[in-house]
Amino acid sequence: MKKFFIIFLLTLLLPYASAQSVFTGWIRVPSQVGIEGKEIELKDISLDGRFLVLTPEGNFLVTPGETVNSSIYSLSLISGFVKEDGGYAKLNITFPYILENQTLLLGDYKISLISVSDKEAKIKLLYKNTSKEILYSGGKIEFNELSGSFTIMPTIFDGYLYKGTSKELYEWTVKFEDFNITEVNGELKEFVTISINGKEHWVEVGKTIEADGIIIEVKDLIGSSYVKVTIKLKGVYATLSISPSVYKEVEEGKDTQIGPYLVRVEKVFSDGAYVTIRNSCGMILKSRWVYTNTLISYGGLYIGVEGIKDLKTKKIVTLVGFLENEKIPKPEADVFVNVSLSTPERALQFEPFNATVVIKNEGEKDLHFVEIIPNLTNGFRIISSYPVYIPELKAKESIRFNLTILPENSGLLKLGSIKVRGNVPFQLSCNGFARISFSSEIRWINVENASPYYLLSIQGSNGSIEDLIPLNITVANKGNTRGPFTLTIALPEHFGIIGDKLTISGRFAYITDSLKPRENKTYSFFLIPTNDGEFEVLAALKERDYITKNSTIVKIEAPTISQTQIPEETKENATPSNSTKIVETYTKTITHMEIKNTTIEVFPTKQKLLFAGGGFVGGMIFILLLAWIAAKLEERSGR
Fold first, then answer.
1. What is the mean pLDDT of the chain?
2. Among candidates 318, 281, 320, which has minimal Cα distance to 297?
3. Of 55, 54, 56, 58, which Cα lies nearest the Cα of 43?
C-alpha cells in the first residue's frame, strides 16, 4: 500500500510531457508565420543577412544561427538569401497547436482547421489563389511544396487533479473545485465541479466537458480530494515543412532544369559560383556571381548557393532555387488584342448582310505577321474580300473592315467568331517570338426562312406572219426575298423575239433581274412569227429552288389571196393576146386570243428533286425542263 501511494504521488506531481507543433523550411520575406491573430512577421532582410522579426513581445534583428523566443513561439533562423524586394529565410519554428477554426500562416501558405473529431480532421490548404480541402485521418499530406502530418485531438494531460489546486496547460488553467454525491432516480451519483480559466462546469463522473478548445473526460473520483481526468485538445499538432523548388548538388559546368529554365553552374570558387540562367534552347537570359547569401533571378526564378565542395577532381555546389510561377514571363502579358464582331440581330436566308470587324491592339507590344481567321459555322459564307494578313499591328493601333456574309440556313443560328493570330517577342522561345491568338465574342443571329413567291402573268396578241406582235410579262414579288431570279421565255419554232437585256440561246430567251418584296414589274417584248398557226408561248421564273410558270396562246394568220379575170367585152384597149390581169387581195383576220395561266407555288417531293440543285447541275436540269416545254409546244402546233 505504501509503495502504491508513492507511485501515485509521483504520477500526480510530475508534469505531463506534451508534444508541440514544429515547422522547418523556407519562407518568403516579407511574410507572416504562426497562428493568425498571434503571428510573427518576417519584415525585412538587410544586405548583411540579418532579418527583422516582429513578435507580439517586440522586434528583433536576427542573424543566421540565432533563436528568438516568445510566449508561444520559438523561432530559429538557419540561413537566408537576399533579393531585390526581400529574400528567403530558412526557419525552424515551434508552436503549440492548431485549434478548431484556427488558421496557421506559413508565408504564402495557409492551413485552416475547419473541424476535428476523434478519428479525422477537415483541413483547408491554401497557396496564394489555389485551395484544397482534405479529410485527414493519418499519413503524410503534400500540397505544392508543403508537406507534413497531423496528430488529431492529442492528449495534453492524463492524470489526477488535486482539489483546490490549479493545473496550467498552455493557455488553460484547470482546477478541481468541489464534488457532490446526489441521488438521481433512487441511485447515488457522483458530480464534480471543474473550472476552466475561472469558469465552473458541473459534470457527472464518467462524462466529459467540452469548452474553450479542450475536452475533459472525468474518469474517477478518488476520495474527496482527487479526480482522475484526461484532457485533449479540440485541435491538432502539426509537423510541417516547405521545400524550395529545387535543392540539389550540381557539379561545375552542369545544367539543371527548373521550370522553363536551364540553370548552369559555369564556374565554382571558394565563396561562390558564376551561374547562368538560360531558356530551353540554351540562350543566356541572365548571368552573375552568386555568393552564399545572394541570389540570381530572372522571370520568377531565384537561385542561391548554400554550400560549396571542392573535391579536387570536381567542384560541387548546393543550389537552392525558388520558382514563383505567377512571375514567369508569358507572351500575352503585355499584349492584348481586342477583337469585336458586330452583326445585325436579324437576317434573311440567302440575303447577304454586312458584319463589322474591329481589331485593336490595346497592349504595350507590337503584333507582327497577323492572320485574320473567320471562324464561321456551316451555313454562313463570306462573299466579300477582307484583309487575310497584316504585316504589323502596332500598340494602340486598330483596323476596321466589313464582311458581307450570305446565310444559307434559317433559324436562330450560331454565326461564329473572328480569330486573330500574331507574333510577339518572347525570350523563353527558341526563335525569339511566340505566336498568340485572340478571339472575338461568339455571335448568334436570327435568320428568317426565305420564302420566294411570285405571280407571273403573260399577255400576247394575235397577228399575221412577219408582224411585230407585242408580248408583255408582268412579275409581282409576293414573297420575302429579293431575288435574283431568271425569267425564261420558251419560243415556238420559227419565232423571233425583240427585247432589252435578253440573252438568246436557241429557242429560249433569258433575262435576269431582282425585285423587292411587294414590288412588280412588266417586261415588254415583240414576237416575230414566220409561220401561221396557233402557238403557245411559255414563260418560267426561277429563284434558287423555286419555279413558277405561265403561258399564252397566240394565233398567226397567213395573208389571203383572191384572183379575178376581167371579161374581154369590158376590156378597154384590148390586145389580141390572151393575157390575164391578176388582182391580189390580202385580208387580215382578227381572231380571239386564249390565255392559259399556270403558277407553281409549292412543288411535291419529286418535282423539287427535278428543279433542285445549284450551279451547273441545276442549270442543266432547268434547260432540260425548257426542252420538254418546247417539245410540248411542237406537239400542240402539230395538232
1. 84
2. 320
3. 54
